[in-house]
Design a protein that fits this description.
With 185 residues, the chain is an alpha/beta fold. It has a single domain, classed as 3-Layer(aba) Sandwich (Trna Endonuclease, Chain: A, domain 1). It is 37% helix and 15% strand. It contains seven helices and five strands, in the order αααβαββαβαβα.
Length: 185
């Protein structure tokens, strides 16, 4: 079995995250055999901001490629159109919401991406701004690599979370394709 599989897939959604092309050119998504490999690479990046941005690129790829998300359009953080921000009452700058996607049935789903080295649990305090800002979204989704989040967060309405360590090789392969699309590859 090869260590990594390069896959060429036509995707209808191009990545919009401002760092997708950068991370692709840096080889972050090359020769990935598992989510654990990607997680190790992200953890090795210098600084929390770089790690967060890299995980946000992963999340955009995940949303774009997973049929369960039914994403028709994806807008990372500040790229959401003014009418979407207005409908959801979101500030123009990122204050705790990492993006929004529209599903095929027209629902607006706000999402947050939280990457942690060492898989430390997420407290409610770390998620409270996200919950406060996204109260008008049809759904709210947290994407994280941690093993546990605060129970009070789990109990919020219209909220779900995804822990991609369960991501299959299919997700990782599609991640490489989505990130490559942002670099013109």
């Amino acid at each position: 079995m090869p260590k990594g599989i390069e896959l060429s897939v036509h995707l209808s959604l191009k990545p919009h995250h401002h760092r997708a092309a950068y991370f692709s050119k840096q080889g972050l998504f090359r020769q990935l055999a598992s989510f654990a490999t990607l997680e190790d690479r992200i953890a090795a990046l210098p600084g929390e901001k770089a790690r967060g941005d890299a995980f946000e690129v992963f999340v955009e790829a995940y949303v774009a490629t997973q049929p369960i998300c039914q994403a028709e359009e994806i807008w990372p953080s500040e790229t959401a159109p003014a009418h979407v921000r207005k409908q959801l009452n979101l500030p123009a700058r990122d204050y705790g919401t990492d993006g929004v996607f529209r599903t095929r049935n027209g629902e607006l789903v706000a999402f947050q991406a939280k990457f942690r080295t060492g898989r430390k649990p997420l407290s409610y305090r770390e998620l409270s701004t996200f919950f406060g800002l996204t109260e008008l979204a049809d759904q709210r989704v947290l994407f994280t690599n941690v093993d546990d989040i605060a129970v009070v967060a789990e109990e919020r309405s219209l909220f779900s979370y995804v822990i991609p360590p369960g991501a299959t090789r299919h997700v990782v392969e599609n991640l490489k394709s989505v990130a490559g699309a942002g670099s013109g590859n």
